[in-house]
Every structure is written in structure tokens, then in C-alpha cells.
Design goal:
The complex is a heterodimer of chains A (307) and B (313).
Chain A (H helix, E strand, L loop, with lengths): L1 H64 L4 H5 L2 E2 L4 E2 L2 H32 L4 H15 L2 H15 L6 H25 L3 H9 L4 H30 L2 H4 L21 H10 L6 H32 L1
Antiparallel strand pairs in A: 1-2
Chain B lengths: L5 H4 L4 H43 L2 H4 L2 H6 L3 E2 L6 E2 L2 H32 L2 H16 L2 H20 L7 H25 L3 H9 L4 H12 L1 H17 L2 H6 L17 H8 L8 H34 L3
Antiparallel strand pairs in B: 1-2
The chains are: A mainly alpha (307), B mainly alpha (313).
Chain lengths: 307, 313
């Protein structure tokens, strides 16, 4: 009698434990499965974000490679851009990058120095930081309007390389300031104190100790900024880019041709433009922009290794 | 920062003293320039606002703000001209909305994967690729949309033309991904390790931790990322100019051709007579655009600062 009850009780306990364990295991399993599913979706999102750009680059290389030839790179366009090469377009873009750098780099570095070495923690500094953040978010076409209103009309530079360079420099400034500031902030405090301790003035310290050490970081930022500037269309569309200019700009007050504007006009404004030419222009633009990006990455990598 | 009185320590002969004074004078000059460069960002921002107001506001003498904002007719060159930007405004809204709706799940999912799940090697490969995407010029994206995506959209939806709001929105969603991914990933990374460890200690799986601990903790940073993405989409010009179709009517469906505010400025600025009504109207659109993006960016910046302070130790 007694052991029958005992057996029943043991069975009851075992069954209960089994049910609980099974439930736990099952829950664990479904939780594992739901985790697996979730991770698959996250991986899918990552693939969706990363793959299109690879596709774009590879597709452009394949389609544009056919257009690239010695004459395409070294001749001026003829028949309204449908034949001939794009040499003046490439040169115009390099002029533009140089002009942008000429204005944006010194001002950007000095602003970075001001913010790290001189600025006190007050309302003005707060205002400057706010202005930088917002400048980076201003739509590119608004920069175009600004350049048109100020440099082209108010300053009487006309539609010109100078006006376009200044406009792009204003746009690039935020990026140059931000990267310069980061690079200068990364210079160890001890360097400055050592310099001040041996009798250097503040400016001497900045000039001979801080700047050389921050240089790779500053250059990285500047290279990235002009790579962006080289690809910008909207700001130069209102300030001086033209589809066909008979000759290279001889002075900063001439109009000019540039790769992004050429690609825009060739692909959507000129009927009957050969497809290979368009892909060729696109490929050259991509090469110019991305090679500067790679250059920036290399400088960053090398300076990191040095430290 | 230390400010030792150097001159009193190195009191040398008189000549050296005057040299030092000359150095000081040059230094004052340089420091003046540095200050000027420091406030240049403010000068430019104020310059932008002043230019937009000076060139744009006069249009409201011709057309009342109400007519300008809610008028559906944009005939800048007819006699008499009418300036109603409602079609552009609706187009911008529609394209931005679709682009953001598509970009947010992909971008945040990608950020969560990169921050929490991906092995180092995958992350080291994917991050440069996404940076590469950020570096591709917008005119290039417009060109790709024109050549590859628009024929696809046209055949899928049986449209007369593939150049429509939807095509532009898809390209824009791709273009706002890099900023959404990088800012959200930073926010997820900033979540303190202790939060996750506490979650694991309670028996949660990695996915449960991401879903119920990491994402809620990083939510303000993620929403800032989304806002920055929206700001990017509102301000994007060349892509929408090339692939959105350019129709001037108020769009009724995403597959209609349309013109956004940015595209309206870009397509009109070349042939608007300087100082004329059309020219003023374009600057007024620019002003509205500027205010919209400024608002979005200010809020995003405020949210990001707050998030930074939240986990600062």
C-alpha cells in the first residue's frame, strides 16, 4: 500500500520535473531560434546597406572602361560633347579642388586652433560649435544660392571659378574645422607643457609643437573635404560651371567645366548623348573622388601606425 | 592650461627684449587672424541667412505668404506669374517620408549588427564600404538612378516613365544610410557594458539584450541618427533633380513624376532673371528649405548632446 503511494508520488514528481525541464528546454530552444532569425535579418540589413554601393562601383567600372582611351582623356569635347574627350572637364575639376583647398584649409586649420587652444568655455564658443554643426547640414543647393547672392553678385566675381571655389570652400569649411579640431585635441598635453616650460610663447608652441604633430590628421580631413567638393554639383551649378566652354579658364574670373556638372548635363540635359560617353564621365568622376578618399585612408593608416 | 610668465624668467639683454616684443606683436596679429577664422563659421551661417532673406523676402510683396506656401500653381514665366510651392513641398515630404521609412529599418539593423553581432573581420570590411557609399557624389547616384533603377521601376509598376518620386526615394534611402548607420552605431556602442552584463546575468540571450536593453538605452541617439537622415533627404538636390521626373503638379501617388523644393531651385536658378520675381521666389524656397533643415539639425544635435551626457562618467 505504502510503496504504491510512494511510487505514485515519485512518478508525480518526476513527471512534474520533466514537464518543467521540457518547458525550459523548449523555451530556450525557441529563444535560440528567434535569436537566430533576428540575426539573419540584421545580417540581411547589413548586406542591403553594403552591397548596392559595391554593385554601383563595379557596374560603373565595367561600363565606363570602354569609353576610356588616350584621346578621351587628352582631347577637348566636340559636337556638343558627344564626341572628343573630356580633358578640360577634368582640369576644371582639379582647378576647383585646388581653389577650394586654398580657402578652406588655412581658415579651417586656424579655426581648429582657435577652438582648441584659445577659445574659452563661453557662449561664443557654444555659438561657434552650433554654427559648425548646422553649416554641415545646410543643403548644397542653399550654398549655391548663397554663393550666387554673395560671391557672384554682391562681390562682382561673376559666374567664375573664383566664385565657385569660394562657395565650395564655405561648404567644406565645417568638415575641415571638425577634423582639424579632432587632430589638434589628440596632441598630448605634455607636449604643450614641455614647450611652454622651456620658454616658448603660446603661438610658438602651437606653430612648432602642436601643428606638426596634428598634421596627418589635418591633412586627412582636408583631403576628404576636397574629395567631397570635387563631387558637388548643386553649389557650382549656380556659381559658374558651364557645359561647354571653348577654352580652359585662363583666370579665376572665367567660367569652367567640371566633372559632376558635365555628368549631370550629359545624362539628363543633352538628348542623343552616347551612353558610353556618359559612363566614361561617371567612371572618371568616381575615380577622382574615390582616389582622394583612398589617399585620406592611407594617410590616416600610416599616421596611426607611427604612433 | 598653464600660463607661465616667460618674459620675466628669461630677462636677457635689451636687444633680446625688443626682439621678444616684436615677436609678441606678430603673435598678436596671428592670433587676431585665428580668432577671425574661429568665428568664420558664424559669419558664413549668418551670411547665408542674410542672403536668403534679402533676396527672397521681397517676393512676399508680390505674392502673399499664404498664396506662396499653399498655392498649387507654379508658373514663374507666364503673365502674370503665379508662385505656389505646394507641389514642391508635398513632393519633398512624400519622397523624404518614403526614403526614411525604407532607410531606418535597414540602417538601424545594420548598426545593431555591426555594433553587437558582427565578428571583427566582418565589421572591418563593412564599415569602409558604408563610408565609401557616403563618398559617392549625389550626381553619381542620380546617374545610377537614371540608367539602372528607373527602367526597373517603370517595368515593375507599369508606368509611362520610370522617372518618378519612388525612384528618387529609393536612391535617397540609399544615400541617407551612411549617416543613420554611423550615428546609430556610435549610440549603440556608447551603451555601458554593465547594462549588457546585467542583462546576460539575468539569463537573456544576446538578441533579447539588444532588443530590450541596448536599443532602448541608445534610443535618443538612434532618433538623432534618423533625424540627420531626414535632414539629408530633405536637402538632397542632384539625385531628385535627375530622377524625380520634374512634373509641376501636386503629386497624388509616389509613382507620379514630381519636383522637390531643392530640384525646383536647381532647375530654375540657371534661367531666372537676376533680381526678378522668379529669382526672388527661388531664394524664398531656399529660405524655407534652410529653416526646415536647420530645425531638424538643431534638434538632432541637442538630442545627441543629451545622449552623450547621459552615459558620461
Amino acid at each position: 500500500m505504502v510503496d504504491r503511494w510512494l511510487i505514485a508520488f515519485i512518478v508525480y514528481v518526476v513527471v512534474n520535473i520533466a514537464v518543467v525541464v521540457l518547458a525550459i528546454v523548449k523555451a530556450k530552444m525557441t529563444r535560440k531560434i528567434s535569436e537566430r532569425t533576428a540575426f539573419v535579418f540584421l545580417g540581411l540589413a547589413t548586406a542591403l546597406a553594403a552591397l548596392p554601393v559595391l554593385f554601383i562601383v563595379i557596374y560603373t567600372v565595367f561600363n565606363g572602361a570602354g569609353a576610356i582611351s588616350w584621346s578621351f582623356l587628352t582631347q577637348a569635347p566636340s559636337q556638343a560633347g558627344k564626341a572628343g574627350g573630356i580633358l578640360p572637364v577634368i582640369i576644371g575639376t582639379f582647378y576647383l579642388m585646388f581653389g577650394t583647398l586654398l580657402f578652406a584649409l588655412p581658415m579651417g586649420i586656424m579655426a581648429g586652433i582657435y577652438l582648441t587652444e584659445y577659445a574659452k568655455d563661453n557662449w561664443l564658443t557654444g555659438l561657434i560649435n552650433m554654427a559648425i554643426v548646422n553649416l554641415a547640414g545646410v543643403p548644397s543647393i542653399v550654398f549655391g544660392l548663397f554663393g550666387l547672392g554673395v560671391f557672384v553678385l554682391a562681390f562682382h566675381f561673376g559666374l567664375s571659378l573664383l566664385a565657385a571655389s569660394l562657395t565650395l570652400a564655405c561648404q567644406a569649411l565645417a568638415m575641415v574645422i571638425t577634423t582639424s579640431r579632432e587632430a589638434i585635441l589628440a596632441v598630448p598635453r605634455e607636449y604643450r607643457e614641455g614647450s611652454l616650460a622651456v620658454g616658448a610663447t603660446k603661438w610658438q608652441t602651437v606653430r612648432h609643437i602642436v601643428l606638426p604633430d596634428a598634421l596627418p590628421g589635418i591633412i586627412t580631413g582636408a583631403v576628404l573635404a576636397i574629395s567631397r567638393a570635387a563631387g558637388e554639383t548643386a553649389p557650382i551649378l549656380a556659381t559658374g560651371a558651364a557645359f561647354l566652354v571653348p577654352r580652359l579658364p585662363a583666370s579665376p574670373f572665367d567660367q569652367f567645366m567640371a566633372l559632376p556638372y558635365h555628368l549631370y548635363t550629359a545624362s539628363s540635359q543633352v538628348p542623343g548623348m552616347p551612353k558610353t560617353t556618359m559612363w566614361g564621365v561617371a567612371l572618371i568622376l568616381l575615380i577622382v573622388v574615390l582616389s582622394f578618399d583612398v589617399l585620406a585612408a592611407v594617410i590616416r593608416f600610416r599616421s596611426r601606425k607611427r604612433i | 592650461m598653464l600660463k607661465p610668465k616667460i618674459s620675466s624668467v628669461v630677462a636677457g639683454p635689451k636687444t633680446e627684449n625688443s626682439l621678444r616684443r616684436r615677436l609678441r606683436l606678430g603673435e598678436r596679429f596671428v592670433e587676431g587672424w585665428i580668432f577671425l577664422a574661429g568665428v568664420l563659421a558664424i559669419i558664413i551661417l549668418v551670411g547665408i541667412i542674410a542672403t536668403l532673406i534679402k533676396e527672397g523676402l521681397p517676393i512676399f510683396a508680390y505674392s502673399s505668404p499664404w498664396e506662396f506656401l499653399f498655392g498649387a500653381k507654379w508658373y514663374p514665366t507666364s503673365e502674370p506669374s503665379t508662385f505656389g510651392i505646394l507641389p514642391f513641398f508635398i513632393s519633398t515630404l512624400m519622397i523624404t517620408l518614403i526614403a526614411t521609412a525604407a532607410a531606418v529599418p535597414i540602417g538601424v539593423g545594420c548598426a545593431a549588427y555591426l555594433a553587437e553581432v558582427a565578428p571583427t573581420r566582418v565589421r572591418e570590411t563593412v564599415k569602409p564600404i558604408i563610408e565609401l557609399l557616403a563618398g559617392i557624389p549625389s550626381v553619381m547616384m542620380g546617374f545610377i538612378g537614371l540608367m539602372l533603377l528607373s527602367p526597373l521601376v517603370r517595368s515593375i509598376f507599369h508606368l509611362n516613365t520610370g522617372l518618378c518620386g519612388l525612384t528618387a526615394a529609393i536612391m535617397l534611402s540609399l544615400m541617407s544610410l551612411p549617416i543613420i548607420v554611423s550615428v546609430s552605431e556610435d549610440a549603440l556602442r556608447a551603451v555601458p557594458k554593465e547594462f549588457k552584463e546585467a542583462s546576460y546575468a539575468l539569463g537573456a540571450t544576446k538578441w533579447e539584450t539588444i532588443r530590450h536593453v541596448c536599443v532602448p538605452a541608445a534610443l535618443s541617439g538612434i532618433s538623432a541618427a534618423i533625424m540627420l537622415g531626414v535632414g539629408r533627404a530633405i536637402g538632397e538636390t542632384m539625385t531628385v533633380l535627375m530622377v524625380a521626373g520634374g512634373a509641376l503638379a501636386v503629386p497624388s501617388s509616389p509613382t507620379d513624376p514630381m519636383t522637390t523644393m531643392t530640384a525646383a531651385i536647381a532647375s530654375g536658378i540657371g534661367n531666372a532673371e537676376r533680381g526678378g520675381l522668379h529669382y526672388q521666389a527661388l531664394f524664398a524656397i531656399g529660405l524655407i528649405l534652410f529653416v526646415m533643415t536647420l530645425g531638424v539639425n538643431l534638434i538632432a544635435d541637442r538630442v545627441l548632446q543629451r545622449q552623450k551626457r547621459k552615459f558620461a562618467r
